[in-house]
Specification:
Blueprint: E1 2-6, H1 8-18, H2 20-36, H3 46-55, H4 57-63, H5 65-78, H6 82-102, E2 118-121, E3 131-139, E4 146-153, E5 159-164, E6 171-174, E7 179-184, H7 196-203, H8 209-218, E8 225-230, E9 236-241, E10 248-250, E11 256-258, H9 265-268, H10 276-292, H11 300-310, E12 321-330, E13 335-340, E14 349-351
Parallel strand pairs: 1-4
Antiparallel strand pairs: 2-3, 2-11, 3-12, 4-5, 5-6, 6-7, 7-8, 8-9, 9-10, 12-13, 13-14
Helix pairs in contact: 1-5, 2-6, 3-6, 4-5, 7-8
Length: 354
């Protein structure tokens, strides 16, 4: 675990210097995937990749000057540019930006990734203290780079954050009991903007779910994601967030489950057409999760079992998507469990706030 505290610059530099060689390696992998055209529909030059990433920096600084400082220090400690930091951290949003920049006339159907299954269990289904949980699925090359961070900033709430090296954060819970997670969506309305890790970390500075949701709704997004938010008071919702439209689904007495396809008409209108096998996988995993959560008394073990057997993805050609890790959180009690790699092969560990 990476345990960091202090100012944003100190936290970012520790992250960058600790994993410097690994961050540089991972950044090159990510830049290479963008250049290949498999995720954007057409090959692009390294120069174009970095030029577009550089253009996104202003939106990151507008989103949060504090997190921009942390990302800058991380990049400096790792020996990469800020543009490279945008790509290594925000890859799945950044490919939406590149795809939109190319336009339909310049690109063929893209190899859209199939990432993550997430769920919120309301308090009434979990003995009065609900859960947030999800798998984190990505190209199998990402698994070796998964880390868990404990942040202890001089100002702002402490947090436990599931992430990868070079990335500000992907899934987490802060000491107020605010949980934020994501599943990937493929947006046709991508643009120069802020990528999702900065938005997740900014939302994790919030005191409650409503405040965290406001961060997401106001963000100048580069690409598409579902953002799931849940807090210690049992307030939760999903934001199906595309750059141009963001319908909200509020948690009621039934669990919320999301995978990698849109569920609202306005977001469906700006969703990239997905290969049929990936669309089928997304619908299947959501159906499995809904069926698994159709019970009155849900425990953390039930949720861990869902990630192990119901929605765990094993890499196979041509997409090579793998469940690189998973989390289960109970915000009312501040319980946090995480597993590295395939949940079907590895054990969850309970992590305490310190």
């Amino acid at each position: 675990m990476l345990d960091v505290g202090g100012t944003p610059a100190e936290m970012g530099y520790v992250h960058g210097s600790t994993y410097a060689a690994e961050i540089r390696e991972y950044a090159e992998e990510r830049i290479g995937l963008v250049m290949s055209g498999l995720w954007t529909g057409a090959p692009v030059s390294r120069g174009m990749v970095l030029e577009l990433a550089e253009a996104c920096l202003e939106a990151h600084e507008r989103q949060s000057a504090v997190l921009y400082e942390e990302m800058s220090a991380m990049a400096g400690g790792a020996g990469i540019s800020m543009a490279e930091a945008v790509v290594v951290g925000g890859f799945t949003d950044f490919v939406d930006t590149v795809r939109a920049h190319l336009g339909e006339e310049d690109s063929a159907p893209a190899m859209v990734e199939d990432d993550c299954t997430a769920f919120i269990v309301p308090d009434n289904r979990a003995g009065g203290a609900g859960f947030f949980g999800q798998t984190w699925d990505m190209h199998a090359s990402a698994t070796d780079h998964v880390i868990l961070m404990r942040t202890r900033p001089d100002e702002g709430p402490r947090a436990l954050i599931f992430s990868t090296v070079g990335c500000l954060g992907q899934i987490g819970m802060n000491e107020h009991g605010v949980c934020v997670g994501i599943t990937n969506l493929a947006a046709s309305d991508g643009k120069v903007g802020v990528t999702w890790p900065t938005v997740v970390r900014h939302a994790l500075l919030a005191a409650n779910a409503t405040e965290a949701g406001g961060v997401i709704l106001d963000a100048d997004l580069a690409g598409g994601h579902n953002y799931l938010v849940f807090d210690a008071d049992g307030v939760g919702f999903n934001i199906e967030a595309m750059p141009s439209v963001r319908p909200v689904t509020t948690l009621s007495s039934e669990p919320l489950t999301y995978t990698n396809h849109t569920t609202h008409g306005p977001t469906r209108a700006v969703e990239v057409e997905r290969p049929s096998e990936l669309q089928d996988s997304s619908h299947r995993r959501r159906s499995v999760a809904i069926d698994h959560l159709d019970r009155s008394a849900i425990t953390e073990e039930d949720l861990m079992d869902l990630t192990r057997h119901g929605v765990c993805q094993v890499p196979a050609p041509p997409y090579h998507v793998e469940t690189s890790g998973a989390t289960v959180m109970r915000p009312r009690t501040r319980d946090f469990w995480a597993v590295w790699g395939l949940p079907s092969m590895n054990d969850y560990v309970r992590i305490k706030f310190l």
